[in-house]
Amino acid sequence: MSSDAGMLVVLAGPSGAGKTTLARRLVEEVPGFEFSVSTTTRPPRGEERDGTDYFFVSDDRFDELVRLGYFLEWAGVHGRRYGTSRDWVCERLAAGRSVVLDIDVVGARNVRRAIPGAVLVFVAPPSLEVLEGRLRGRGTESGDLLEGRIDAAASEMRWAGAFDYLIVNSDLGAAAARLSAIVDAESARISACGYPRPAGFSPLIRGSHREEWRGRRVLIATGPTREYIDEVRFISNRSSGVMGCELASAFRAAGAAVTLLLGPCRAVPPRAVALERFTDSRDLAGLLGRLARSHDILAMPAAVADFRPSRRVTGKMPRGGGFQLQLEEVEDVSASVSGLCPLLSFSLEFGDRVQAISRARRKMEAKGAFASFVNAGGIEGSGMDADANSGVLLLEGGGAVDIPQGSKRFVAESIVSSLPVPPGRGA
Ligand code: ADP
Ligand code: 5GP
Fold this sequence. Notes:
The chain is of the alpha/beta class. The protein folds into two domains: 8-188, 3-Layer(aba) Sandwich (Rossmann fold); 208-418, 3-Layer(aba) Sandwich (Rossmann fold). 30% of the residues lie in helices and 24% in strands. It has eleven helices and 21 strands. Helix 1 (19-29) packs across helix 7. It binds adenosine-5'-diphosphate (ADP) and guanosine-5'-monophosphate.
């Protein structure tokens, strides 16, 4: 199976745990991996070279880079600042290369927020004594600087639980082997692979033809919206965001460049997509208004909450004293982008199948969509908030494609392979 996007591996843990050593070995031993060289305000030490170990910059230059949005993440560590270049990492991932970062625990958690598919590995020393011995042996810090790094280790260890994997670096060979095993397992994740199409199965598995969508830009909005009542409570729905993330994978596998707009949900998007987050329907409308025009199609499995509170209360509304919730209807977000970009709409319909399909076709035409995927509500284990899906893809001119029940990944692949490929804005 081939990976259609690179992997982002983040190594974090206390100073002296062995992150740099493990990251360099990974680059040497696993083809396709590159080390991300960070930018720092700390001065070079010993043999360190600008551009190889770090980009060494002044405080003023670092401020400027922060202002320019240059960093994917940055953090203050041991009294200095360190940051990772956003463009360098994202360009490599989009090109199918893999990247390893050696950063602190705060930075690792921020990377997870920006790139949810990142693989977070915590590197721990076998004991504080061993850590101290290694830092003294490395000989790069002494006195207060050395003490500071040892003191920080205890608080850094508290964050191990926020990571995906733990490597206790006792024996270097064993630790490096474990890191390779993690990378191996991660590269076989279904979410990181093209859809398996063994030759004899091709009549049974529709699957998208690779590269058919190359040169096309696809915008996908997925997940629910949250319409806040106060600062902790909201109106939302059961959308998991998974259908849109699987569509993003399927369009990527078919060669498209994908921008994914992701609502508040835990679905993990594929790595090589440009990601933007929204919370409520106004955020989503704003993003669509900004981005729709520059894309060749907009796919909208997003489940916008249809109603919002007429007023948002500041703070947390106290119990007692009674409370009445006044709702107003939310504008039709996909109608607001009508004409900016061809639309693939999604519609969840309950009741009789024939009526549901004709209702969905009317909605599709009213929205000016060129295609619409209709799935039936009320099927146990299928559709919203479930692993499986099935439905009918309605096409302009009266055509329809039945997509039988399968994983959401299968349904996404089937949708992508059944859609007419648009000419592309540049064509
Ligand atoms: P970090 O990047 O986490 O600060 P380093 O990779 O610089 O840590 O490792 C700290 C020191 O410990 C280095 O001198 C390195 O050669 C050494 N080291 C790393 N892993 C091991 C290990 N498993 N056994 C012995 N020494 C190690
Ligand atoms: P050192 O000064 O020993 O090279 O690094 C000190 C700490 O800064 C280490 O924990 C290292 O992982 C972290 N670090 C290095 N580069 C970055 C970066 O780009 N971002 C963040 N957040 N931390 C970094």
